[in-house]
Design goal:
By secondary structure, the protein is an alpha+beta fold. The chain folds into 3 domains: 103 residues, no CATH class; 104 residues; 102 residues, OB fold (Dihydrolipoamide Acetyltransferase, E2P). The chain contains 5 helices and 25 strands. One of its GO terms (molecular function) is ribosomal large subunit binding.
């Protein structure tokens, strides 16, 4: 030790000035914790309340406990190489005791401290569940068809699109875009929604998938904080003909591919294998939809004729070969039955 070397005034060890690192670390509190932290959650949907905002963020309970415990902890700003361990124990149905164990270096000195935090689990109905239980809604999407009743396939697609749209918007953070009721009536499907945004998206997606159009009909229902409140009915009208319908025009068969405005149909000529346009007035009758097609076994093929086993009678029937298909003997091909003409129509 030289005469210029400083001495720690507490322990007498050499130091660069003031307290030595060991005494300085001993005087510094590494860790401080709040004794209790409250976690507010919705008992219906398990969403979490953070501040004044509800969140659908999903995480394992163990991770949530660790996050809440750490949020109640404060580590000294000079600590380095921090290693943290959280141990938890359920002490009651609404209480979790956590022990936080921290190792670090403080002024180059290894230190170790622990603290205790209690998590209090508090139940509260979230904003979304409160609205649902209170019967709140902002719109109804009504799915109907033009001059006919919607079929099972259209019902299934409409409901699936509605549920997928709801899930997509909620995952994007739009919590109040919920479906409060799905009613299947004899005329169609009624979808009650918690936000106009969801209603608009459902109407847009259904008409995009099934064709048709929709109109909006707002109704003033009150006022809140000086703003007018409306409920909107989204009235969907599916077209008379659907994608996949096989229709007869001038004795030939056509598959409907798109339904255009002004009662025009984009169709596929099942004989010539080319795209065409028909007006609804040119359609003589409907024989079915390609979704209902049967599988018929190819018995033989010739340049202009194909022999198929009728899947209903098991008898061989001869059909004109169509240029856009490539039937293979012993392999199945899809056909639709024209009951009125007692014919099989190759649809692919």
């Amino acid at each position: 030790m030289t005469i210029q070397t400083s001495i720690c005034p507490r322990c007498g060890q050499p130091t660069e000035g003031g307290l030595c690192p060991q005494c300085r670390a001993a005087d510094t509190r590494l860790l401080s914790c709040e004794s209790r932290v409250t976690a507010v959650y919705c008992p219906v949907c398990d969403s979490q309340k953070r501040g004044k905002t509800w969140s659908d963020l999903r995480m394992p309970r163990e991770d949530l406990i660790a996050e809440l415990a750490v949020s109640a902890m404060s580590i000294h700003e000079d600590a380095k190489n921090v290693r943290l361990t959280v141990r938890s124990e359920e002490t009651a149905s609404n209480r979790t005791a956590c022990t936080l164990d921290v190792e670090a270096t403080l002024y180059s000195v290894p230190v170790h401290e622990t603290c205790e935090v209690e998590i209090l689990w508090q139940k509260e109905a979230c904003d979304r569940c409160s609205r649902i239980s209170g019967g709140y809604y902002e719109g109804i999407v009504q799915v109907r068809a033009t001059d006919r009743k919607i079929n099972g396939y259209e019902r299934e697609v409409a409901v699936s699109i509605a549920e997928q749209t709801e899930e997509s918007l909620q995952q994007a953070g739009d919590r109040l875009s919920f479906i409060s009721e799905l009613e299947d009536s004899k005329d169609g499907v009624d979808i009650t929604v918690g936000s106009q945004h969801l209603g608009q998206e459902i109407a847009r997606m259904i008409t995009g998938a099934l064709g048709g159009r929709y109109t909006t009909h707002p109704k003033l229902v009150g006022e809140k904080e000086g703003k007018a409140l409306y409920r909107v009915t989204y009235s969907i009208r599916l077209p008379y003909y659907q994608k996949g319908d096989v229709v007869v025009s001038r004795g030939d068969y056509f598959e409907v591919r798109e339904i255009e405005r002004q009662q025009r149909l984009r169709v596929f000529d099942l004989k010539a294998g080319v795209a065409r346009t028909l007006t609804e007035a040119e359609v003589e009758r409907l024989i079915g939809n390609v979704r209902e097609a049967e599988s018929a076994l190819v018995v033989f093929t010739q340049p202009n004729v194909v022999g198929l086993m009728d899947p209903r009678t098991y008898r061989t029937r001869e059909l004109d070969a169509v240029p856009w298909t490539f039937p293979v003997e012993g392999q199945p091909i899809r056909v639709l039955r024209d009951e009125e003409q007692d014919r099989l129509v190759i649809v692919g």
